[in-house]
Write a structure and sequence with these properties.
By secondary structure, the chain is of the alpha/beta class. About 35% of the residues lie in helices and about 15% in strands.
């Protein structure tokens, strides 16, 4: 993979949680696909309210940033489990079975590489930088940019077939 890469020894494979869980790590910007992630989480939670959707990140001064009120509503409604900004993302990755990054554009996203190294299946967008991390059907899936329904549908595949995360997570580690 292009990009900075990660030291796979520093990101060991972690056991998957018993119940499927999703995670996104990003600056809380619209262009990172945070609203799409939350929208898809809402769709999944209507059918499976016990599924967790973690979010790691921070709000900054960017005009495209999510505002505090919006984030507070997501947390208060129970859609998102918010971790805040973390210096070490490994514990958050350990709590998920699928890593999600619905970004509009990226270089090669380091967070995806870290999740892959830890044996996590990937859902990301068919956007430059993101698409290079996924071999479709092997270690994850690609969705169109800004596609909340499609993202939710792919998430549901992992909920109804948890073995998919196991198989794809193994492949992610091999690719990493």
């Amino acid at each position: 993979l292009n990009g900075s890469g990660v030291d796979v020894d520093a990101y060991p494979v972690a056991k998957l949680p018993c119940v499927p869980a999703f995670l996104m790590i990003a600056r809380l910007l619209g262009d990172k696909g945070v609203r799409e992630y939350v929208g898809a989480a809402r769709l999944v939670k209507k059918l499976y309210p016990n599924i967790e959707f973690g979010l790691v990140g921070w709000i900054d001064d960017n005009p495209n940033a999510i505002d505090d009120r919006e984030l507070e509503e997501w947390v208060a409604s129970g859609v998102i489990k918010y971790y805040g900004r973390l210096d070490d993302v490994k514990p958050a990755i350990e709590e998920c079975s699928v890593y999600v990054l619905p970004s509009y554009r990226e270089g090669t996203p380091r967070t995806v590489l870290e999740a892959m190294a830890m044996g996590r299946a990937i859902i990301t967008t068919d956007a430059p930088g993101c698409r290079e991390t996924v071999v479709v059907g092997e270690n994850g899936f690609l969705v169109p940019i800004k596609a909340v329904e499609e993202l939710g549908e792919v998430m549901l595949r992992f909920v109804v077939d948890p073995e998919l995360a196991v198989r794809m997570g193994r492949r992610s580690r091999q690719i990493a």
